[in-house]
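hiii, so i know i said id send this last week but things got crazy w the move. better late than never?? heres the sequnce for the chain we talked about at the cafe, plus the structure i predicted for it. fair warning i was half asleep when i ran it
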Amino acid sequence: MPVPLSISDFKMTSATCEIRYDNAYLIYDRTGQICHDLKASFTGFKVQSPSPSQTIASAKEGSFVIEAAASRFTTKNPDTKLEQFAIFCKQFFDVVSEGLDVKVFTRLGFRVLFRKDFRGLDEAKSAFTALKLTTLKPTKRFGAADEPNEILLRWEGEDIGTMWRAKAETIKIDAVLPAELEMENSDLRKAFNALVVDVDYYTVAPVERSQWDPKEWIRHSIRTIRRDTDALLGN
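okay and structure toks below
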């Protein structure tokens, strides 16, 4: 019988925070200044894809997207408590909100991915099935398989919503190292058989910028996500 899982068995592989707002047409005039200000706050900040309506950039701390109606910050393998991540989010969103003159957020989103690796995909699928997130009896459906290997749940109230997804899958990573590194093998390929938990926690009602503290909101959000995900895993 599979051992019951808890969120502490998983590794947090990425975290993303996103703000949405009504179309900010100042983006066409102020993106350059925003990037200039971000360069002063983040290590090795570099614009990778500039365009009038969307700018993609990266730094040692993570990656950035600035759009006419949304902006987001993502980091890979963040610190467990997300303390540094929360600080980076505040720095980024303060600059963007000030530059685009955003007064109200139509949506705040916080998404985290957790992964637990297994020796094989069958083990990952067994762990998924053991979660007992569905009461469906094992039987072949739609000509596919006897049991699902993914489930998506959504809760939404007047103020907060959450989309929660669990999936057993094989994750493949392919990377090509720069030729100047003169590595004997420049192609890196790796695969993980894992159970992935993907949680998107978001606001439903508009939020005044002056009322939002990114650091406190992210700290509260990750505590809520961990607590309720633990309950779902233990079921």
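btw The chain has one domain: 7-234. thought thatd interest u
miss u guys!!
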